[in-house]
Write a structure and sequence with these properties.
Layout (H helix, E strand, L loop, with lengths): L15 H14 L1 H10 L11 H10 L4 H13 L5 H6 L2 H6 L4 H11 L5 H4 L4 H8 L7 H10 L12 H10 L8 H8 L6 H16 L6
């Protein structure tokens, strides 16, 4: 199982055993999660190395399909345009050729010039991580929460603005319509201290129910 982090950051998800522990807890407290877990099987770890590249990848994934995000990221990797210096040196034409919109190219440059000290985020409470990241143009709460979840391994963070999570919750909880971001955030309070595992489970259920990926 994962290590206990300091009180300021809470539990850190480090291994598949951590995810399994959270899934078992969720299935015990919410029958619908038990049903979903039976359909999905074991949940993925989804841990990524923290730092500029992962956050850039989250920007790339904003408001596009998983397939489109994968294609754009593949072209950026092929052109070696995934580091801050390379982003700053690249021309608009080079970034556009990889599939970045003009707006996202601007966001990528803003991130490259932000001066964020990524190692320092590891010891900050999730609320402070989100506050730091959203100061960068193009990084909203969704992107910051996804970073905290996957790159920092926070066990109790959720991303209720995610459309796939909203749709999965609608299906799993038999709601008449997709819950709003505010409503889903309220629902997720019952899933603490394993909200990020609840998110993994909802994404996995989305993949089974809709036969497509909901998160990159």
């Amino acid at each position: 199982m994962g290590a206990e982090a300091g009180l300021s950051v809470g539990r850190i998800i480090e291994t598949p055993d951590c995810v399994a522990e959270g899934a078992e807890w969720l299935a015990a407290v919410e029958p619908r999660f038990a049903f979903a877990l039976d359909r999905t099987g074991p949940l993925p770890l989804r841990r990524r190395k923290d730092g500029f590249e992962t956050l850039l990848g989250a920007i790339v994934s904003q408001q596009v399909s998983v397939a489109a995000a994968d294609a754009i990221w593949g072209r950026l990797k092929a052109e070696r345009l995934t580091g801050p210096r390379k982003i700053q040196w690249a021309s608009d034409e080079e970034l556009r050729a990889c599939g970045l919109s003009r707006q996202k190219a601007r966001y990528a440059r803003a991130l490259a010039g932000s001066g964020i000290r990524f190692p320092a985020l590891r010891d900050q409470p999730t609320e402070d991580v989100v506050k730091t990241l959203v100061e960068v143009p193009g990084i909203g709460v969704w992107t910051a929460e996804i970073y905290a979840m996957f790159a920092l391994g926070r066990a109790d963070v959720f991303a209720p603005g995610d459309l796939a999570l909203q749709e999965s919750a609608r299906l799993l909880f038999d709601l008449s319509e997709r819950p709003t971001e505010k409503a889903l955030r309220g629902m997720a309070e019952d899933w603490s201290p394993w909200r990020s595992v609840a998110a993994r489970l909802l994404w996995a259920y989305y993949r089974v129910a809709k036969e497509r990926e909901g998160i990159r």
